[in-house]
Automatic annotation (TrEMBL), chain A:
Extent of the signal sequence: 1-26
Key words of the record: Signal
Organism: Paenibacillus abyssi
Regions of compositional bias (Basic and acidic residues) in chain numbering: 77-86
The protein's name in its UniProt record: Uncharacterized protein
Region spans: Disordered: 77-101
Keyword Signal part of the UniProt annotation: yes
Keyword presence, Signal: yes
Higher taxonomy: Bacteria, Bacillati, Bacillota, Bacilli, Bacillales
Biased composition (Low complexity): 90-101
Automatic annotation (TrEMBL), chain B:
PANTHER family in the record: INTEGRAL MEMBRANE PROTEIN-RELATED (PTHR37305), MEMBRANE PROTEIN (PTHR37305:SF1)
One Pfam family linked to the record: ABC2_membrane_4
Record flagged with keyword DNA damage: no
Range of residues in the leader sequence: none
Keywords recorded for this protein, A-Z: Membrane, Transmembrane, Transmembrane helix
Transmembrane parts of this sequence: 21-39, 59-81, 108-133, 139-167, 174-203, 223-245
Name used for this protein in its record: ABC transporter permease
Length: 424, 250
């Protein structure tokens, strides 16, 4: 049988279309290892924020130079979403061999922290009524504003590298991801940007630490190898992630250095983590006050000069006086007035004169007191304790919305700093 | 197929006489030179080794496949079809004792040859530049991966050129085809980035599939799927192009 030309054309077009569309659909459905890994990460982050009752995260970051450990930081963080409490301890080994430790505990009512150098716990107690959202909970980074856009950008940058992520089904359930890039596969732009970034990081680090042993790389810096693994358990949570980046370069003396940054993240003890406040009985404790830092020692008179420049000279035309009359039950009361020397009223027409009651809330930066200005209008103000014997007063604060405010700086000749007047 | 051979030679000679070939060659040399200057500047300015000698051709390739190569493939494809129709030389071509299929395949094969030759040309210059400027980091495996990358890049670019051939057989005006091709090219790249889920359907998203070929742990299944996609898409576009060319009134 001889097929007509038309039939052959139609047939070959159909075959081509079938092969194309079916494979493309299959390819789309299979997705890349990268997309699956991204899905796992998103799921894990969402569960860590909400869903898992408690868990432990271990982080280990190591920086090695030619195989020798330079800096190592390990963090152990226990989070309990039910009790709304978290514990965190960090150990850092620096380039000069010193080791530093830090410990902190936070819950709805208390914050406790201790650094390794001193045997002393700092404790801060929060009032019962203050709603404490920031007990060090885990925030899902994918829910933050702008995360979707950043994800798109990262996707575009990853581009053709998506298929480097290999996926394997584990016999015990879940998946294992792995991927590695050698020198030739790291895109030139990524190579240049990350090499430059790490170079800057090292030079910053060695500027901060005087006896840093990190090598100063000068030339021929390039990303030698990038690799990573991730293990997902059968509940779809990532249990372990590792990442390695090796950077190669030559230092001033011409010696070759391979600097490796190694990161290990582990999620463990899901449902078995115990978060407990440290036993403070008999321990060395320093209570940190938190009524905006105010205490009875702040009672007194504070003064700030009204100074203008006239005929090429500084002239004091008056004084601002802030009197704190009492600090009781976290309530600060006092009065504020401005006196202008006779003859200078025209220079400073709207002098303030009011008394106030201020209840600062340390956990809420948006706590103000209200007062009435010379025109009879209501305005907002704030007072902060500053250095020893100093207060900082913010007047005519404009509240933008529930999370932000703006200090009005257009009050004449006013810098907000008040010094205690001591009677001698 | 004596007729086909003659048609093929005929098309090749026509192609070689075009000034565009010289322009493509000059621009290719420029691309390599600019790339090398940039790499050298970064090396001496920031102390970063962006590329070793065998990676340099790959850096050039990643820029070249997205710019000069598709642009000249579009030029050549339009010249072969719209150009000949508008200058009325298509009649002469078709008056020869060759079937329309013979003429069409001769043209497409020449287009393929042009793309391959352009890639080969750039590869040789880039390799030479790499060796001259960064002689320290040459290796045989590096050269093999460069050759493999350039060879792999041929296929998606050729399939894209087939799409341009199809367009130039649908629309008469060469300029309209040119702009449409550019729009399609930009559109495909845009969709590939923004809606990356659908990138499997776009041959432009495979322009950088050479990275799969030179990966340490080759993702064989992915490469196989992409070969099938390119193959299917290629056949489809070739047949559709031929069908329209065959029915065209001169």
């Amino acid at each position: 049988m001889k097929l007509s030309k038309k039939a052959v054309t139609a047939l070959s077009f159909t075959i081509g279309a079938c092969v194309f569309i079916s494979t493309a659909f299959a390819d789309m459905a299979l997705g890349s290892g990268y997309d699956q890994l991204k899905g796992s990460i998103k799921n894990t982050a969402a569960q860590m924020e909400k869903g898992l009752n408690n868990y432990t995260i271990e982080t280990l970051i190591t920086l090695k130079d030619n195989g020798q450990t330079m800096v190592q930081t390990s963090t152990l963080e226990k989070i309990d979403n039910e009790k709304q409490a978290s514990e965190r301890s960090t150990t850092t080994q620096q380039t000069n061999g010193e080791t530093r430790t830090n410990y902190s505990y936070t819950d709805q009512k208390f914050s406790v922290w201790k650094s390794g150098e001193e045997d002393k716990y700092y404790v801060m107690e929060y009032p019962v009524d203050s709603s404490r959202e920031n007990w060090n909970r885990f925030d899902n980074p994918f829910n933050q504003s702008g995360a979707a856009e950043i994800e798109k950008i990262v996707d575009a940058l990853v581009g053709g590298l998506k298929d480097y992520v290999q996926v394997e089904e584990r016999p015990e359930g879940g998946r294992a991801y792995s991927g590695s890039l050698s020198e030739a596969q790291v895109p030139a732009a990524v190579n240049a940007v990350s090499s430059f970034g790490i170079k800057q990081l090292i030079s910053d680090q060695s500027r901060m630490e005087r006896d840093s042993k990190l090598p100063q790389m000068e030339s021929d810096i390039f990303v030698k190898k990038v690799s990573g693994t991730a293990v997902e358990n059968n509940a779809g949570l990532l249990e372990k992630m590792t990442g390695d980046v090796t950077l190669s370069g030559i230092d001033k003396s011409g010696a070759q250095h391979d600097i490796t940054l190694n990161v290990v993240l582990k999620l463990s003890d899901i449902g078995n983590t115990q978060v407990a406040m440290p036993d403070l009985t008999g321990a060395n404790i320093e209570k940190v006050s938190q009524s905006g830092g105010f205490s009875s020692k702040h009672v007194g008179t504070y003064q700030n000069n009204i100074v203008i420049e006239k005929d090429g000279e500084f002239v004091k035309i008056g004084e601002r006086i802030l009197e704190i009359t009492s600090v009781e039950n976290k309530k600060v009361t006092g009065k504020y007035y401005e006196t202008v020397k006779p003859g200078f009223e025209a220079e400073y027409p709207n002098a303030y004169n009011f008394s106030f009651e201020y209840t600062p809330d340390n956990s809420n930066p948006m706590s103000f007191f209200t007062y009435t200005n010379a025109q009879g209008e209501q305005e907002n103000g704030q007072i902060h304790p500053n250095d020893l014997g100093m207060l900082y007063l913010d007047l005519n604060v404009e509240i933008m919305d529930e999370h932000s405010y703006r200090s009005n700086v257009d009050i004449q000749y006013f810098n907000g700093e008040f010094n205690r007047v001591f009677e001698e | 197929m004596a007729g086909f051979k003659a048609a093929f030679v005929n098309e090749s000679i026509k192609l070689l006489k075009k000034k565009k070939i010289i322009a493509a060659a000059v621009l290719s040399i420029f691309a390599v030179l600019i790339g090398q200057i940039a790499v050298t500047a970064i090396k001496h300015g920031f102390g970063l080794r962006v590329v070793g000698s065998t990676e340099f051709p790959l850096v050039v390739l990643s820029g070249f496949t997205y710019t000069i190569l598709p642009l000249f493939a579009i030029f050549v494809a339009i010249d072969m079809f719209n150009g000949e129709f508008s200058s009325n030389t298509m009649k002469i071509t078709l008056a020869r004792p060759v079937s329309r299929f013979g003429v069409f395949s001769a043209k497409v094969l020449n287009l393929a040859l042009f793309i391959a030759a352009n890639l080969l040309f750039v590869m040789i210059i880039a390799l030479l530049a790499g060796f001259i400027f960064n002689p320290s980091s040459a290796s045989l495996s590096g050269i093999v991966s460069v050759v493999l990358s350039y060879a792999a890049t041929f296929f998606p670019v050729f399939v894209f050129a087939l799409l341009v051939v199809l367009l130039s057989n649908i629309i008469r005006g060469g300029l309209a085809v040119f702009f449409l091709s550019i729009m399609v090219y930009i559109g495909f790249n845009f969709i590939g980035i923004v809606f990356s889920n659908y990138s499997s359907f776009l041959m432009t998203s495979m322009f950088d599939w050479y990275t799969l070929w030179i990966s340490e742990t080759a993702n064989v299944f992915k490469i196989f799927r992409q070969i099938l996609i390119l193959f299917g898409c290629g056949i489809m576009l070739f047949t559709a192009g031929y069908y329209l060319f065959d029915r065209k009134d001169v």
